[in-house]
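Sequence design from tokenized structure. All designs in this work follow the same two-part layout: the structure record, then the generated sequence. An example of the structure record is given first.
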């Protein structure tokens, strides 16, 4: 008859391995966590400003006030929203899961996404120039001292409620840079796939 003795190292290592495992998982998923965190922050900012008392123009309540982001550092809600939206988008693309999906995507899908991103960049670039010209002209004609109060009232058929120029401009700028970021991202993915295909061909010839 033998005495069975349970190994002591299992219980001894349990308290230390669990925090290490959690830390390793967080380190592996740092980009997805950052993407989700910035996305939730952007959503909370836009919803919080939307449900606050607003003026008669679209986006006015996101421009006319400033919130304290850090001690002594204030920012307009629309500026904070565009920054966090871009960071959420960028970190989301560089998460391991998203990169793997792009690396396994068919070339036709990547080409379509590449062309579509350039189309969005072209349209948003024009809108940026249009907003700047409209902003400058409105300041000259209206003689407004505060540039944050300028609104676009046209076209009336498609835009029955005037939209704040600062609000529209920052949204369009965010869209432009997100499309440029996606263009560069797809280009990098395509280059990685081509290099991998070239390496596989070299190995197969040996």
């Amino acid at each position: 008859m033998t005495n069975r003795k349970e190994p002591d190292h299992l219980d001894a290592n349990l308290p230390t391995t669990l925090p290490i495992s959690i830390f390793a998982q967080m380190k592996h998923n740092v980009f997805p966590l950052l993407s989700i965190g910035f996305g939730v922050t952007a959503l909370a900012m836009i919803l919080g400003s939307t449900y606050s008392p607003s003026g008669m123009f679209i986006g006015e309540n996101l421009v006319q006030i400033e919130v304290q982001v850090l001690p002594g550092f204030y920012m307009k809600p629309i500026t904070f929203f565009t920054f966090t939206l871009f960071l959420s988008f960028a970190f989301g693309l560089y998460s391991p899961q998203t990169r793997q999906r792009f690396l396994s995507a068919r070339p036709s899908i990547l080409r379509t996404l590449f062309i579509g991103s350039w189309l969005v960049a072209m349209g948003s670039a024009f809108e940026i120039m249009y907003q700047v010209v409209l902003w400058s002209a409105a300041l000259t004609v209206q003689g407004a001292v505060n540039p944050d109060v300028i609104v676009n009232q046209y076209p009336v058929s498609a835009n029955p409620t005037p939209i704040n120029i600062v609000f529209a401009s920052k949204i369009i700028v965010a869209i432009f840079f997100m499309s440029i970021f996606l263009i560069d991202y797809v280009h990098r993915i395509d280059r990685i796939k081509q290099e991998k295909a070239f390496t596989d061909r070299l190995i197969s010839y040996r």
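Confidence is low (pLDDT under 50) at residues 8-12. We note this feature because it recurs in several other targets discussed in the main text.
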